[in-house]
Amino acid sequence: MSMSINSHHLSRRSFGRLAAAAAVSLGGAALTGCSTESGKPSPDTPLRVMGINHVWSQAVTKLLPEFEERIGRRVSMSLLTADQLANSYNVKLNASATDIDVMMVRALQEQLLFAHNGWLADLTTLVEGDAAYGWADFLKAPRERSVTAGKVLSVPVVTERPVLYYRKDLTSAPKTLDELMETALRLTKGDVFGFVGRGQRSGAVSMWSSFLYSYGGDFTIDGRSGIGRPEAIAAYEYYGRLLERAGPPGATNMSLEQAMPIFAQGKAAFYVDADAIYSNFLDPKISIVQDTVGFAPFPAGPAGARPFNIPSWSLGISAFSRLRGEAWEFLRWASSPEMVKRLQADGIPGARQSAWSDPATLASFPSDLAGTMQAQARTGLGIDRPDVLQVGRARDIIGRPLVAGILGEPVAPVAREADAEFADFLVRDNRHREG
């Protein structure tokens, strides 16, 4: 049994149909067996793409006429909020509905569950057998996160890394976490906080991951809980102390939406969050720090600087699609080397090494941000949360010691309790995975 998870229309054109038809035929053959297909849909049936309302999907929507001309079939692209998208997948895919062809998915949040449910087509032969597509060109960490149980189930299209945002008028960028703590405490005075960041129990886990890794810890070690180990406890204590002593009041209720405006309004010296949100600080409509904001790599901890470099959004093909060949053509087009360079040049960070190695694709970013992103794209780890079926539940468990630290409570006993709870969770989660 499946486990649940917590239009754009343009006319068809005939130009390029013959070349596209050959590629579509090959793609359809490679994906045979991914659904219970009973006859090819008529030419009037659109290719249906379902995704998140995101700058990447908005940009691709504007370029759809190019793709429709290429395959001779119109495209219907539905853009939803994250909650709407999750609910739609849960309802439609549980019912084996054939009205989704291409799916935007979060490889780290839901791909494992979707694979368990049999909702994603296997793309391995396609991505590895197409020399022009260049699967090896994708950044190593996002590429590895596209694989579940030895099968490529998605291709990354948007990536993100943590950035240390800082006020250049107040300080220089610290190189280590010790320097960050010392400077944040020193700059906390009056109306300015030394540091702001996510503190909400579940929502803070992904940003905390880079602190955990840089302290030498991990969520799981050899398949067992790692959050009760000394390295994890030290990372919990560090992050808690940073927000308790240098952060704003009410930090335990802060997600991205609450933390980001505090830095944008000049009320914090440092802020760690995803590089994808950088433009908020350059927009004079919401920011007063556009002339003073600096961008720096994640500082080094006892184990060095170990930031994440994740595929925040990827593309997959529904296992129930009756247009699998056309769906693969969409993936090839939307994640091609040319498209990734094109979109990255407009400020949307992609997942291909060829794009990150091309200075022209980074020209739209501030120079210090471009250098930071480029360095962390090479070295970052491909995960920022535990690799489990029920990610939301796991994050809730792991986030409990974070809250204790921010509230100034002893972290070690809470971490030990959370470690035992997470260990039990992993046993149950693995049973579900194998069931």
Automatic annotation (TrEMBL):
Pfam family membership, one: SBP_bac_1
Protein name: ABC transporter substrate-binding protein
Source species of the chain: Nonomuraea insulae
